[in-house]
Every structure is written in structure tokens, then in C-alpha cells.
Design a protein that fits this description.
The chain is about 45% helix and about 15% strand. Strands 3, 4, 5, 6, 7 and 8 form a six-stranded mixed β-sheet that branches. It has a two-stranded parallel sheet with strand order 1-2. The protein has one domain: Carbonic anhydrase (Beta-carbonic Anhydrase, Chain A), CATH 3.40.1050.10. By secondary structure, it is of the alpha/beta class. Helix 7 runs antiparallel to helix 8. It binds zinc ion (ZN).
Length: about 300
């Protein structure tokens, strides 16, 4: 199978208009679906399931966000800011099938935000507001930073080793709010006995990843209030290694439609409601789906 990014001199050389948050999120989801399609076709071809037609993706310098002529510098014009994790398995532009000049990307372990990260977004809001339509916090399944925060929560005696430097403590401590919210939701919906089950650590990491993305989104939404008029909407989602999709709840049923993203929670109550929805969704997975979606069987 060939995947061909083909220059078409007759293709439109204008970028599609992205007037609002819905069209910005629509473009991100379309790009993520394109990425899933490319990877799925490669996997099926590797297994010899079918030969597959060449996949042709028309491009021009403009649609790639590059200058049309030598020596011309494009104006910076991202339609979305993405706050993701530094994890090497989740390269932001790749999973949205985007190229130059479309995404303003911050990647920090555990998608937590310190002063420099928030300052970078303040810069984007102040100077790139003409094109910027949304800020998306993107967590990912089986996150090493979230796992470290869960381990620090479950084994306080290991905290000294896990968070041995000021920098590491900053990340591990920032994620504690999500871990404690996830633990409370799991106990509420799974019963107190869940804390002594063999899967508890994996479940707590899995739920905390989703809650942690929502926590960062809530914090950013509060940061932006009053900073600029009409600040872009803050959304959040999670990249899942099993489906390769961004999604806001786990599922083992292809026929069930789940939200691909959600708006930032408005309050701590909203956040805990969401933590409960995620906990219930993980607790409803069958054993095979738990293995794929949750259990920490891969190297973090
Ligand atoms: Zn991570």
C-alpha cells in the first residue's frame, strides 16, 4: 500500500476557514480519524488482509503551512493550542495529521501547567487570537507521569524516590488532585473493597488520566477568565493507544458513540461528576477490554 502526499498544482491553495470552536474541533477529529485510517490500513496490509489501494492525500505548500514562494515567511496562525504530554508515543501533529503552522503545541510530562506553560498560552491568546479558536488539553492512556503520581499516592513511603527533585515533585504533586478525585470516584462506584483488588493500581491510573486532563482544562479556563475578551473555549480529551482515537470515556463497544472531547468543567462538582462517569465506564468494561484499555502490561 502506498500513502502518497501528492502536490497538486490545481488544488485550492487557501486554507479552509475555521470560524469557531466547533469547526476547530471538527478539523482535529477529522485529522485524528485520517491518522487512524492510515495506521489501520498499514496494520491490515502488514497482516496480509488486503492489498489496499494507494491513499493519496493532496497537498500544496499552503495547506502544509509552508511558504508558497522562496523567502516568504508565513504569519503564525494556529487554529488550536494543544496542551499535551511529553510522551514520545503521542506526537501531537502526527495524531491529528497536521503539519506546519496549524497547532500551537505545549508538551509537558503529565500535561500539567506551570507558570511558563500558562505564560505561553497567555502569549497565544494575546497575539494569535485572530486564528486561535480553541485550547485542547490532551492526556493519554498509560501515562508515566500519572502512574508516578498514583504510586506516590498508594505508597507514600516511596514518595522520596519517586519525587526526588524539585522538578519531579512539581509534576507528581500537580497530578495528586486528579488521583485523589479518581480514587474517590472508584470507591464510590466500585465499593470500598475495590481498593484491595489486584487491578486497583491499573484502574486508578486509567481513571486518573482522564480526570487529570479535565483538571488541567478547568485550571486553564479559570486562568483565561478576564485575561482577554472572548478567550477561546478550553476543551479536553485523552489519546487512547488501543483505538488510536481521542476520546473522553473508555468503551469496548464499537457501536457506542462516546464524546471525542468535552468542554472544561465549570466547577469542582462538575469535575467530580465527570470522574464518576469515567470510573463507571472503566468498571463496566469486560475482562478483555480491561486488559487492553487499563492494565499496566506495557512498559511505561
Ligand atoms: Zn504522559
Amino acid at each position: 500500500m502506498d500513502i502518497i502526499y501528492r502536490y497538486d498544482p490545481f488544488a485550492p491553495i487557501e486554507m479552509p476557514k475555521i470560524p469557531d470552536v466547533e469547526s476547530a474541533m471538527g478539523r482535529l477529529i477529522e485529522g485524528n480519524d485520517r491518522f487512524v485510517n492510515i495506521v489501520t490500513q498499514m496494520q491490515e496490509r502488514t497482516l496480509g488482509l488486503h492489498k489496499g489501494e494507494p491513499m493519496v492525500i493532496p497537498v500544496s505548500p499552503v495547506t502544509l503551512g509552508l511558504p508558497l514562494f522562496e523567502g516568504v515567511m508565513p504569519t503564525q496562525a494556529p487554529f488550536a493550542a494543544i496542551v499535551g504530554c511529553a510522551d514520545a508515543r503521542v506526537p501531537t501533529e502526527a495524531i491529528f495529521d497536521e503539519s506546519f503552522n496549524s497547532l500551537f503545541v505545549l508538551r509537558i510530562a503529565g500535561n500539567v501547567l506551570g507558570a511558563e506553560g500558562i505564560g505561553s498560552l497567555h502569549y497565544a491568546l494575546a497575539h494569535l487570537g485572530e486564528s486561535l479558536r480553541t485550547v485542547l488539553v490532551l492526556g493519554h492512556a498509560k501515562c508515566g507521569a500519572v502512574t508516578a503520581a498514583v504510586d506516590a499516592y498508594l505508597s507514600p513511603e516511596a514518595y522520596v524516590d519517586i519525587a526526588s527533585t524539585h522538578g519531579l515533585r512539581t509534576i507528581v504533586d500537580s497530578i495528586q488532585i486528579a488521583v485523589r478525585g479518581a480514587a474517590r470516584a472508584l470507591t464510590l462506584h466500585g465499593g470500598p473493597q475495590i481498593e484491595s483488588t489486584p487491578d486497583y493500581r491499573s484502574l486508578l491510573v486509567a481513571v486518573s488520566v482522564y480526570v487529570n486532563a479535565a483538571v488541567s482544562a478547568l485550571e486553564l479556563k479559570r486562568e483565561f477568565q478576564g485575561f482577554v475578551e472572548n478567550a477561546p473555549a478550553v476543551n479536553f480529551s485523552v489519546y487512547d493507544f488501543e483505538s488510536l482515537k481521542i476520546q473522553c470515556l473508555p468503551t469496548d463497544d464499537d457501536n457506542v458513540t462516546i464524546p471525542r472531547y468535552l468542554p472544561a468543567p465549570d466547577s469542582a462538582d462538575d469535575l467530580f461528576q465527570y470522574a464518576g462517569d469515567v470510573a463507571k465506564a472503566f468498571l463496566a468494561l469486560d475482562d478483555d477490554a480491561l486488559d487492553r484499555n487499563c492494565r499496566l502490561t506495557v512498559k511505561l
